[in-house]
Amino acid sequence: MPISHTWTINSLEYADAAGLASVVNQVNWTCFSDDGAGLTWQNSGSTHLEAPDPDVFTDYDALTETEVLGWLGASLIAATEAANVLAIQKLIDVEVTNTGAGVPW
Question: Alpha helix locations (H) across the chain?
Fold first, then answer.
């Protein structure tokens, strides 16, 4: 079964800069991956952004999660998803011989 990945933008850090209001300078994100059979992994991080081009600037209130995810870049997204797949694969490869729950008394 293929592993699915769900990206979430947790928060944006912004400041007024270069004559523009609320310029996003950092994106805080999480990538949650699920193998569909009960194994999951998540990776979180922060990505610093360079100053935007004023000619294509989107006002803070008009931003969408899809647009902000695009700022992360294909290489970061691919690397993060690959790391999550590897982590889940390691969980699958671990031989479980004894499991349980409770207390010893």
Answer: 65-72, 74-93
Among residues 36, 31, 13, which one has the least CA distance to residue 77? 31
Q: In angstroms, what CA-CA distances link 58 with 29, 42, 90?
A: 19, 29, 41
Number of domains, the chain: 1
- Residue 62 is which amino acid? A
pLDDT tens for 23-35 read 999 999 999 999 9
Q: Which pTM was predicted?
A: 0.84
Question: How far apart, in Å, are the Cα atoms of 101 and each of 58, 98, 104?
Answer: 51, 10, 9
Q: How far apart are CA 31 and CA 81, in angstroms?
A: 7
**Half-sphere exposure in the Cβ direction for 69 (13 Å, CA):** 12
Would 100 be classed as within a structural domain?
A: no
